[in-house]
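Deliverable D2.4 — example input (C-alpha cells):
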C-alpha cells in the first residue's frame, strides 16, 4: 500500500569546496538550468556545505565559496524564483535523515565507493569519518525531498546508485514504500570532463593544480593559456570518432568542444578531421571564452552584493525546509523515534 505518491522532483547539489570548473558547468550546472527551463518537474538545487567540510576548509574561504557558488548557479541560469536554491546546513533535515541513513547503509557498501578510495588515497587511516560517510548524507540530501531525478556527472553515478540501495533497504526494513528510488540523470556530450593535465583523471575543483582545470572565473587569457598547454598527442584529429580510441586527452578536448557548441562529438570530429591541435586548440579556446565570459562577469556582478545572495539563500532554505521537515518527521515515526 503506497503511503505517498512519488511525484517527479529534481534534486542536485554542488560542494563549495573551491571555485566552479568547466566540469561542474558542463556536467551539472548547464543541465540544471535546462531541467529548470523545461518546467516539467520542480527543481531543488543545493550548495552542499556539509559535504565540503569532510575535508578541512578554511572557514572564511568556505563562507566566500558558498556565496560564490550561489552566484555561479544564478549566472548559469538557475532562477531562484523558478528553482529552490539554498545551502545544505541551513536545513536541519539533511543531517537528521543522514543519521538514520548511516544506520541503514552497510559498511561493505561504503567500502566499495570509488570516490572515497580516490580522495583518501594512501592516507585512508587519516581522513575524516565524514568523508567515508559522505554517500549516506548525499542519500539524505536527495531523499529528504523525495526527489526522483538526480542530474549529476558520471562520477556521481555510484553515489546515486547507493542512494537507491539505501531507499530500498529502508523501505524493506520498515515495511514501507515511503522513500522513492531515485534515478541518476547523466546526459550530454561532457558527463565526465577530464583534467587538462591527465586525460585519465577527472577535472575537479579540489585538484591541487590550477592548470588541470578551467575555472568559471578564469579570464580569457587564462582560458587560452590552459587550453594551449593542455596535454595532447602529436597526431592530428582523426576522420571519425573511433580514431580517438586510446587518446583520452584528445577525446576530452573534442567532448568539451561538442558540449560547449551544442554539437555531437561526431560532428566536431568531422569538422576538424585531419587538422592539428595547433588549429583546434585556439578554436576551442575562443569557444570556451565566448560561452564562459558572460557567466564569469555575471558572477562578479552578483558577488558585489553579498547581502542579496544571503537573502536568496535564506528564502530558498525556508522553501526547502517546508518540504523536508514533514518528511523527516514521518521518517522518525516510521523508525519509532519520538523526536522531531
Ligand atoms: P571536489 O573535487 O571537491 O569533489 P568537484 O569538482 O568534483 O569537487 P562536486 O561538488 O563534487 O565537484 O560535484 C558537483 C557536480 O559536478 C556533480 O554533479 C558532479 O558529478 C559534477 N562534476 C564534477 N566534476 C565533473 C567533471 N569533471 N565532469 C563532469 N561533471 C563533473
Ligand atoms: Mg566531487
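Example output (designed residues):
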Amino acid at each position: 500500500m503506497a503511503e505517498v505518491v512519488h511525484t517527479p522532483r529534481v534534486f542536485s547539489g554542488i560542494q563549495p569546496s573551491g571555485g566552479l570548473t568547466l566540469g561542474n558547468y558542463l556536467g551539472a550546472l548547464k543541465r540544471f538550468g535546462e531541467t529548470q527551463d523545461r518546467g516539467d518537474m520542480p527543481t531543488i538545487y543545493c550548495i552542499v556545505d556539509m559535504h565540503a567540510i569532510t575535508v578541512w576548509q578554511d572557514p572564511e574561504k568556505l563562507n566566500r565559496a558558498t556565496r560564490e557558488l550561489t552566484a555561479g548557479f544564478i549566472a548559469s541560469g538557475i532562477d531562484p524564483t523558478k528553482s529552490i536554491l539554498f545551502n545544505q546546513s541551513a536545513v536541519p533535515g539533511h543531517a537528521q535523515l543522514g543519521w538514520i541513513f548511516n544506520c541503514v547503509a552497510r559498511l561493505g557498501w561504503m567500502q566499495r565507493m570509488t570516490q572515497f578510495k580516490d580522495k583518501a588515497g594512501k592516507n585512508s587511516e587519516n581522513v575524516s569519518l565524514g568523508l567515508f560517510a559522505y554517500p549516506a548524507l548525499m542519500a539524505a540530501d536527495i531523499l529528504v525531498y523525495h526527489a526522483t531525478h538526480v542530474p549529476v556527472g558520471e562520477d556521481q553515478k555510484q553515489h546515486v546508485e547507493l542512494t537507491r540501495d539505501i531507499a530500498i533497504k529502508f523501505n524493506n526494513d520498515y515495511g514501507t514504500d515511503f522513500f522513492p528510488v531515485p534515478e541518476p540523470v547523466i546526459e550530454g556530450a561532457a558527463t565526465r570532463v577530464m583534467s587538462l593535465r591527465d586525460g585519465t583523471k577527472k577535472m575537479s575543483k579540489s585538484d591541487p593544480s590550477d592548470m588541470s582545470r578551467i575555472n568559471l572565473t578564469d579570464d580569457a587569457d587564462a582560458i587560452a593559456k590552459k587550453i594551449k598547454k593542455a596535454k595532447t598527442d602529436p597526431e592530428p584529429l582523426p576522420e571519425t570518432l573511433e580514431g580517438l580510441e586510446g587518446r583520452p586527452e584528445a577525446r576530452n578536448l573534442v567532448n568539451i568542444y561538442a558540449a560547449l557548441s551544442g554539437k555531437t562529438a561526431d560532428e566536431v570530429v568531422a569538422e576538424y578531421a585531419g587538422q592539428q591541435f595547433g588549429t583546434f586548440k585556439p578554436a576551442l579556446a575562443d569557444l570556451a571564452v565566448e560561452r564562459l565570459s558572460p557567466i564569469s562577469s555575471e558572477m562578479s556582478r552578483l558577488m558585489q552584493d553579498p547581502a542579496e545572495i544571503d537573502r536568496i539563500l535564506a528564502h530558498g532554505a525556508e522553501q526547502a525546509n517546508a518540504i523536508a521537515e514533514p518528511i523527516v518527521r514521518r521518517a522518525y515515526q516510521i523508525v519509532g523515534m519520538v523526536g522531531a
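Residues 14-15, 17, 21, 23-24, 26-28, 152-153, 155-156, 191-193, 202-206 surround adenosine-5'-triphosphate (ligand 1) (CB under 6 Å).
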